[in-house]
Amino acid sequence: MKKITVLMILLMCCYISRAQQEIPLYSEKIPNSIKTSVKEKVSKDYSVYSKVSEPKLRMFLPPKEKANGAAVIVCPGGGYGVLVTKRPERVAKEFNRLGIAAFVLKYRLPSDETMKNKSIGPMQDAQQAIKVVRKRSEEWNIDPQKIGIMGFSAGGHLASTAGTHFDDEMIINKDKTSLRPDFMILVYPVISFTDSIYHKGSREHLLGKLPEEKQLSFFSNELHVTPSTPPSFITHADDDSSVLVANSLCFYEALKKNNVPVSLHIYSKGEHGYLKDPPFEEWFGRCIYWMKTSGYF
Fold first, then answer.
1. What b/e string do you get for 261-280 counting C-beta neighbours within 10 Å, with b at 16 or more?
2. pLDDT (tens digit, 0 to 9) for every residue of the chain, 297 residues total?
3. Which listed residue, 45, 169, 199, 204, has the most CB atoms within 10 A of its CB?
4. 163 contacts: CB under 8 Å, gap ≥ 6
């Protein structure tokens, strides 16, 4: 009996190790990178990362018999200055319980010390993540036409950049793998870099203090919505004083104008981060309902 118990524990450990394995995002040289002595830093509880220059994917794979084919690449927030991974990892685990594969993207943080062009580094990593997941979809029991991207705060800006600029390829893509996410989930997202509603930290970290007009336009994602933009779920709090709800509203309006299916949920209270309200089960439950009724699993 003891031998069987020990064996079961070992098998479970092997599964957890495989299911939550962290892999390098690039198998070869990281594009747009500069050789540097800058070292990545992480908080004691491994929930806040800074000075990230080597992007990785942390995989959360459900058992094969439970997998339903859907997958979500999750982009942490942090104003492009840090990566806050606690909420994304909770979401990834919840997705797993439903048979959905999840991948937490540890993307490069913009820095002139580590990149030739810091403004496109995160975008390159988001595109590469989509390419990797789509190319290895069979191996990971994923439907290549049910791969979405999710982002919190500045991660929402990155996710919406991936969803509006998938034709602007910033990576090597010899096989012409589609870089278009099949759907987007945007949680209190930064969307626009226009002067009236931009988030100061996100814009300055990505583009610097004196960005060019063409950069502001390129990264104001509401300006690049087309009928080909992926269907979207958006949630925000009306009292968010950090990232104004106008970001979500302008993106919603652009999606509607282009006849892109969208579900928008605005809460009266919640501030930035949904630390107390609305409860996790409330907004995440609506997200799951939208995914299910949209046919993603």
1. ebbbbebeebbbbbeeebee
2. 445 454 444 444 444 444 579 999 999 999 999 999 999 999 999 999 999 999 999 999 999 999 999 999 999 999 999 999 999 999 999 999 999 999 999 999 999 999 999 999 999 999 999 999 999 999 999 999 999 999 999 999 999 999 999 999 999 999 999 999 999 999 999 999 999 999 999 999 999 999 999 999 999 999 999 999 999 999 999 999 999 999 999 999 999 999 999 999 999 999 999 999 999 999 999 999 999 999 999
3. 199
4. 149, 180, 181, 184, 221, 229, 230, 232
Question: With helix as H, strand as E and coil as C, how does the chain read?
Answer: CHHHHHHHHHHHHHHHHHHCCEEECCCCCCCCECCCCCCCEECCCCCEEECCCCCEEEEECCCCCCCCCCEEEEECECCCCEEECHHHHHHHHHHHHCCCEEEEEECCCCCCCCECCCCCHHHHHHHHHHHHHHHCCCCCCCCCCCEEEEEECHHHHHHHHHHHCCCCCCCCCCCCCCCCCCEEEEECCCCCCCCCCCCHHHHHHHHCCCCCHHHHHHCCHHHHCCCCCCCEEEEEECCCCCCCCHHHHHHHHHHHHCCCCEEEEEECCCCCCCCCCCCHHHHHHHHHHHHHHCCCC
Closest CA to 224 of 187, 189, 188, 255: 255
C-alpha pair distances (Å), 29 with each of 32, 54, 58, 83, 178: 9, 10, 19, 22, 21
Question: Can you name the residues that pair with 33 across neighbouring β-strands?
Answer: 115
Pair of tokens at residue 94: 């919840």
Residue 251 CB: number of other CB atoms within 10 A?
29
Q: Would you say the C-alpha torsion 99, 122, 179, 231 has a positive or negative sign?
A: positive
